[in-house]
Structure formats: structure tokens, C-alpha cells
Specification:
Shape: elongated
Order of helices and strands: EHEHEEEHEEE
Radius of gyration: 17 Å
CATH topology of the largest domain: 2,3-Dihydroxybiphenyl 1,2-Dioxygenase, domain 1
Strand content: 35-45%
Mean pLDDT: 93
Strand order of the largest sheet: 1-4-3-2
Structural class: alpha/beta
Low-confidence stretches: none
Length: about 140
């Protein structure tokens, strides 16, 4: 079994994918626009340019993304979860945290804690909540 987050960006998916490539070193694996759907499912005009489905890898994890269905009403901001990133290198953790924070909101500033060499919580500029954690390797 594989569990994968599926993120909705409501017209900003292309921008989000580019942001995650820069901030996280993500690699876009695939992307399909609404106009590329078969038959009656294909949308035209501006709706056709929107991303129906994309997948991207961050480290060993594949996440999925979309602009949503044409004419879909955006839902309220994400709540009730965070996407956690675990790293071994504190400098890399801080770099990723800072990149995700650009244009976003820091919920827990980057710092060392009793469980981590470095930890921080941020909601990025697309409303996606992240936790960046560098485990404490010292007992």
C-alpha cells in the first residue's frame, strides 16, 4: 500500500510545481492538462490549460497535484494535517524551511528542540502546511 498526498491548487498548480522544484529539489514526474483529456472530458480555453493531474517526487516520496476540476469551487484552506520532511543535515533542513517560508507563514520558528537538532513549522504561500525536522542524533 502507498499513501500519497493529493494537493489542490485551484489555478496555481503550475506555479506550485515550479516553487517545489526550487524549494525542495522536487522532480515533476508527469503532468496532464484538462485539454489533454479524452473526448468529452477535455476542457477548452483557459480551463483547458489548467493542470488536471501532476505527480512530483520529493526525495523518496511521490506527491500528486491538480488545479481541480473546471468550475470547481475552492475549498477552505488545508487544515488538520502537515506534510513532514525528515532530514539528517541541519543546514539542509534550515535551507528547506527558509525556502518554504518565502511568501508563507512561519508557525513554529526554526530551532533546536529536545527531540530535534532543527525543527520548524511553516505554511507555504499555497496554504500547504509543512513540518521540517532534523532528528537529534545525540542521545
Amino acid at each position: 500500500m502507498v499513501v500519497q498526498p493529493y494537493l489542490y491548487f485551484y489555478g496555481r498548480c503550475e506555479e506550485a510545481l515550479a516553487f517545489y522544484e526550487q524549494a525542495l529539489g522536487a522532480q515533476v514526474v508527469g503532468k496532464m492538462r484538462n485539454k489533454e483529456a479524452p473526448g468529452d472530458f477535455a476542457a477548452q480555453g483557459e480551463a483547458g490549460e489548467r493542470i488536471m493531474h501532476a505527480s512530483f517526487k520529493v526525495g523518496q516520496t511521490t506527491l500528486m497535484a491538480t488545479d481541480g476540476m473546471p468550475n470547481q469551487t475552492p475549498v477552505p484552506p488545508y487544515s488538520g494535517f502537515s506534510i513532514a520532511i525528515s532530514l539528517e543535515n541541519p543546514a539542509k533542513g534550515k535551507k528547506i524551511f527558509d525556502a518554504l517560508a518565502q511568501g508563507g507563514e512561519i508557525r513554529f520558528p526554526w530551532q533546536s528542540t529536545f527531540w530535534a537538532t532543527g525543527f520548524g513549522m511553516v505554511v507555504d504561500k499555497f496554504g500547504v502546511p509543512w513540518m521540517v525536522n532534523v532528528e537529534n542524533t545525540q542521545p
